[in-house]
Amino acid sequence: MKCPFCNFQDSRVVDSRSVKDGSLIRRRRECEDCKRRFTTYEYIEKIPLMVIKNDGRREPYNREKLKMGLITACKKRPVRMDEIDSLILSVEKEIDKLNSSEVPSNKLGEIMVRFLKDIDPVAYVRFASVYYRFEAVSEFEQKIKELDRVPGNG
Q1: Do the beta carbons of residue 74 and residue 84 sit within 8 Å?
Q2: What are the tens digits of pLDDT across the range 26-68?
Q3: How far apart are alpha carbons 140 and 79 in whole angstroms?
Q4: Which one, of 8, 26, 9, lies nearest residue 17 by Cα?
Q5: Nearest C-alpha neighbor of 4 from the set 24, 26, 33
Q6: In what order do the strands lie in the sheet with 11-19?
Q7: Strand ranges (DSSP E) for 3-154?
């Protein structure tokens, strides 16, 4: 494994542990050259999932694209990276339950919004504003009112 700090080609595994019911392995590594430590994650490789966009195009599911959208929604919010990673794993499990090699982007968005709502209300509204394509303030207000009706949020 190449060191992200000095680009040396060899590192050793210092610690390895299973995360999220064994579907993910977290490894702490140490560079053999600069001795700095870094973390890597291994995921079980699955059949490639295709996302069906609203216009009918298909594109491969991109975990990093999803993660960047969540990071943007959670910017300056008290949401930890491990919570974002956990949310992504939960979404992927929901998609797996569909037992299909294709998922419509709107279904993916619905699942994301549902999980994000439980993590952070502000991040939820930010993500929902992009997902639902709000064009008027009244649409924002409606979603916020719906959020306020959820027990524990008001």
Answers
A1: yes
A2: 999 999 999 999 999 888 766 788 999 989 999 999 999 989 9
A3: 22
A4: 26
A5: 33
A6: 11-19, 24-31, 37-43
A7: 11-19, 24-31, 37-43, 50-52, 58-60, 102-104
Question: What is the predicted pLDDT for the residue at 26?
Answer: 93
Location of structure tokens 């919570």 = 83
pLDDT, average across residues 121-127: 85
pLDDT above 70 as % of the chain:
90
How many Å apart are CA 14 and CA 35, to the nearest integer? 11
Q: Could you give the count of Cα atoms lying within 13 Å of 38 in the half-sphere of its Cβ? A: 17
Q: How far is CA 27 from CA 46, 80, 81, in A?
A: 20, 19, 16
User: What is the spatial distance between Cα 21 and Cα 154, in angstroms, rounded to a whole number?
Assistant: 34
All structural domains of the chain with their residue ranges: 1-45, 46-148
Asked which of 62-66, 77-81, 93-97, 139-143 is least confident by mean pLDDT, the reply is 139-143
Which of these, 104, 102, 140, 95, lies nearest to 122 by C-alpha position?
140
Residue 1, CA atoms < 13 Å, CB-side half-sphere = 19
Q: Which residues pair with 26 in a beta bridge?
A: 17, 41
Q: Which residue do the tokens 């595994």 mark?
A: 13
